[in-house]
Design goal:
heterotrimer, A: 344 residues, 2 domains, seven-stranded mixed sheet, 7 strands, B: 251 residues, alpha/beta, four-stranded antiparallel sheet, globular, binds adenosine-5'-triphosphate, binds magnesium ion
Chain lengths: 344, 251, 273
């Protein structure tokens, strides 16, 4: 055997092993091809060619190309799907993972319920979910949570007013009440300063997301006219699913965010009021001090009236309850924030 | 025509050649003699441009080596066949392949012609059956002769022999001497033979150059040698003749 | 009255001589690197007056020596490293929170990206680099390179080009051998360990596989092929002084080859990943 033949044989063999090995590890059948499906993304999120395409978490192909559309407004992602995989019509496609955290891949989810018609074939187009309509939801009206917070705060105001009135009119166990009030106002201030930054960031990212979402949904609407019927059907089906998904997901998120911001704004105002009130109480106390020492009969009476003491105490407890509620909210917001991140 | 002018060379500050002048006329056999370590091999290496001189120059057929580009230099070198002192056979090739190598590389001969020519050359050096052996399987003298066969294979215009007969028995030495002479006579080859062997010198040399102390203090024909008075030359020649013990042949 | 201080006129020279050893090492390194570049430049400036057949014949021979003759040792080395990777992965990643497929993933990533190329390169530093350096070094000290030059051949092209090209062409082939042997043995070891089955192993290997990994490995092995063979040619070609010189050239080829392979590995990762 001459050297040339040895070399040729080994190189050819290596090429065959290479080809077979890559196809094997890619989960592709050794022989027989696949087909290409194009997904239209608004934002590729750092997707690159070679990224893995999964259907229900199972590897079914890879991203072949990531291109900008001619008008540079959308991203056309060509996915090579293995020949033996059928992707149901109406499936949704989205990126998964965040490029900052490592890999961005493509996740295809079949539609809920019965499949609509034939599975996707080569050349078909999927429009990616980029949480359209979320903006509308986010900017929508408030729900019971807002109402609850409102009620609570209004209640707080009322309580303060009552307290104010009582204090102005009485000389009960004022020292104890004041101490409690001071503690509460301190706790409220700490809470607000602590949570403020976190909440601000959440709001900013949600706002950006909402802006994105609205532009996508606008365009999706326009493009239905442009695309061919088949593709159009896909789009309609897709956006239907998208809407459902977004509604299911985004409801609580939106509400949470909305309420959080308004609640905090009000809390802020109330805290300002609280501070003023505290200052007032200070003067009242000095006033009371002098009054208490005077022999006037009414004040002595007030001082010994236990109902006043209980009233003041109850008011303070209510305020404490409100602040606890408020304190409990951010953690729930954060949980929902997680859901938002996953949607994007 | 090889012209050497004012050639000087030092190695690590130690001068080996200090102003060598030598003309090698075409078609003649020029023998370079001199004591061991006097710089004969270094001189030969200068002739084919393997060593860059510190001063002076070598001119081959009118082309000064120091002015040539590398590819021009290589073209000049192809007019030479060189027998290195150690043979310098390629270890990875058999004796035959060594002889065939320059033929395959530099001539347009067919495979059969190459083989035929290699056989011819191996026969000339009396090694017709050594073709299949690797250099390591050959004796020192046999290696030398294969190297000689390789040097003459392409019938170059100039052949440089560095001690072609050292390590050979007198009989084989005579054969090699005859070969060198015959190449000059039939092919018009110009030969430069470095040797210690005064016996060879006297039988083949047209001209003799004596290297001593980094210069060539004496050049002349064999006839001139008998009239020479240079004491170092005489000492060299006499020592040699005494060692060989065949003064009658010099007559 | 002020006296000008006596300055020893030889002081400057003495100071310079004192610092000379400091300068000698970097100067030597620079000189070596320059010589290496010149050798390669001279070699790849192919003479046009020689027939390509000469190169083709040498190339085929070198490809056999560099590539095909190295298949057994490369297989052996990567078989063991593939097995070790899997055993270690099973040991280190034994955690109820991690899926067992992670063993396959881990093996795939480390073998295709790093071990398949690096272990191969280290083995070939010895197998190929040392052989080339010894061969060229012997040719140098036995005047065979001079003999080539004296014939009018460009010895650099004649000797260096086929070896380096053979390295560049055959190392990717050896990478394929290394990667497939490593993965296959990894799968077998996984099955034998009892911790997971071959199927799970391959499932894990596929999970995060991307063809770019293989492309990266191929490019790296190609670069390593160039680095190892060219450095070996350089040290061998520059050998001087008999058997000792050849020994030095051989050692240097292996050591320098390993060091520069590591450096090239880093560069490849920095550029391509
Ligand atoms: N590459 C080299 N580096 C250092 N010194 C060298 C080198 N080549 C030759 N020399 C020195 O040059 C001198 C002449 O060497 P050369 O080989 O020319 O001697 P020579 O006349 O051929 O001797 P011989 O008859 O023994 O072969 C020697 O002293 C040797 O030490
Ligand atoms: Mg000599």
């Amino acid at each position: 055997m001459t050297n040339e033949i040895k070399v040729a044989l080994s190189v050819l063999l290596a090429a065959v092993v290479l080809f077979a090995g890559v196809r094997f590890l890619s989960g592709q059948p050794l022989f027989g091809g696949g087909y290409d499906v194009v997904a239209v993304f608004d934002d590729a999120q750092g997707l690159t060619s070679g990224a893995i395409v999964r259907l229900n978490g199972v590897r079914v192909g890879e991203v072949r190309e990531v291109d900008l559309s001619p008008d540079a407004r959308r991203v056309l992602v060509t996915m090579a799907i293995n020949g033996d995989v059928e992707i149901p019509r109406g499936s949704t496609v989205q990126t998964s993972g965040i490029s900052a955290l490592g890999e961005v891949n493509v996740e295809i989810s079949p539609p809920q319920g019965a499949t609509a018609g034939r599975p996707l074939a080569g050349g078909d187009t999927l429009v990616a979910v980029s949480t359209p309509d979320l903006f509308d939801l986010i900017s929508g009206e408030s729900n019971s949570l807002t109402a609850r917070a409102d009620t609570a705060l209004i209640g707080a105001v009322n309580t303060f007013t009552t307290l104010d009135r009582i204090l102005t009119n009485s000389g009960g166990d004022i020292e104890g009440v004041l101490a409690q009030l001071r503690f509460l106002s301190q706790a409220a201030t700490t809470l607000v300063t602590q949570e403020r930054g976190r909440i601000d960031r959440t709001l900013a990212s949600l706002e950006a997301a909402a802006a994105n979402a609205s532009s996508v949904s606008d365009r999706v609407g326009r493009d239905v006219l442009d695309l061919s019927t088949v593709v159009g059907n896909d789009v309609v089906a897709t956006s239907g699913v998208v809407r459902g998904l977004a509604e299911a997901n985004a409801d609580s998120v939106t509400a949470a965010v909305n309420n959080l911001s308004s609640a905090l704004r009000r809390a802020d105002e109330q805290l300002a009021a609280l501070t003023v009130l505290t200052a007032d109480l200070g003067t009242i106390t000095t006033d009371l001090d002098s009054t208490l020492n005077s022999p006037a009969g009414t004040l002595g009476l007030l001082l010994n009236d236990p109902s006043l003491y209980y009233n003041a105490n109850a008011a303070a407890a209510t305020l404490q309850q409100i602040l606890q509620d408020l304190q409990a909210d951010p953690s729930r917001y954060l949980k929902e924030l997680d859901g938002v991140v996953r949607v994007f | 025509m090889i012209q050497i002018r004012g050639l000087s060379k030092s190695f690590d500050g130690v001068p080996v050649l200090r102003g060598v002048d030598l003309d090698v006329p075409e078609g003649e056999v020029t023998c370079i003699i001199g004591r061991s370590g006097s710089g004969k091999s270094v001189l030969l290496r200068h002739v084919i441009g393997l060593v860059r001189p510190d001063a002076g120059r070598v001119v081959i057929d009118g082309a000064p080596l120091d002015e040539l580009t590398y590819s021009e230099l290589r073209r000049v070198r192809r007019r030479f066949g060189v027998l290195f002192q150690g043979g310098a056979l390629f270890d990875s090739m058999s004796a035959r392949e060594n002889v065939e190598f320059p033929l395959r590389t530099f001539t347009d001969l067919t495979r059969d012609q190459v083989r035929q020519r290699a056989d011819e050359c191996l026969a000339l050096v009396e090694l017709p059956d050594a073709g299949a052996k690797k250099p390591a399987e050959l004796s020192g003298g046999q290696q030398k002769r294969v190297a000689l066969a390789r040097a003459i294979a392409v019938e170059p215009k100039y052949i440089l022999y560095d001690e072609p007969t050292s390590g050979l028995d007198p009989e084989t030495s005579n054969t090699i001497d005859e070969l060198i002479e015959r190449l000059g006579a039939t092919m018009g080859t110009t030969s430069v033979v470095v040797t210690h062997d005064m016996h060879s010198v006297l039988s083949i040399a047209d001209r003799i150059a004596f290297v001593h102390d980094g210069t060539i203090p004496w050049t002349g024909t064999v006839a001139d040698l008998h009239q020479a008075t240079d004491p170092t030359l005489l000492a060299f020649v006499r020592a040699n003749e005494y060692k060989i013990g065949t003064p009658s042949q010099t007559a | 009255m002020e006296t000008t201080p006596d300055i020893d006129p030889s002081l400057g020279a003495r100071v310079r001589a004192g610092f000379a050893p400091l300068w000698r090492v970097p100067a030597g390194l620079l000189e070596g690197f320059g010589a290496y570049c010149l050798l390669l430049a001279g070699a790849f400036n192919l003479p046009r007056d020689l027939s390509p057949r000469l190169y083709a014949r040498n190339l085929a021979e070198q490809m056999v020596q560099v590539g095909i003759d190295s298949i057994p040792i490369v297989s052996l080395a990567t078989a063991f490293s593939g097995g070790v990777v899997v055993v270690q992965a099973i040991y280190q990643l034994e955690n109820p929170l991690l899926p067992v497929t992670i063993v396959g993933t881990f093996a795939e990533q480390s073998i295709l990206l790093e071990l398949g190329t690096l272990v191969t390169a280290f083995v070939l530093c010895g197998r190929v680099g040392a052989r080339i350096a010894a061969e060229l070094g012997t040719m140098r000290v036995k005047e065979q390179i001079d003999a080539l030059e004296a014939m009018g051949l460009n010895s650099r092209s004649y000797l260096v080009v086929p070896r380096v090209v053979a390295g560049v062409l055959m190392f990717p082939m050896l990478y394929v051998v290394a990667a497939s042997v490593g993965m296959a043995v990894g799968g077998v070891v996984a099955e034998l360990s009892g911790a997971l089955t071959v199927q799970t192993f391959w499932e894990g290997a596929r999970l995060f596989f991307r063809p770019y990994d293989v492309f990266f490995g191929l490019v790296k092995s190609l670069v390593f092929g160039f680095v190892i063979t060219s450095i070996a040619c350089y040290t061998g070609y520059r050998a001087e002084g008999g058997a000792e010189g050849v020994g030095q050239a051989t050692t240097r080829a292996a050591v320098l080859g390993c060091v520069w392979v590591l450096f090239a590995d880093y560069l490849c990762a920095a550029i391509l990943l």
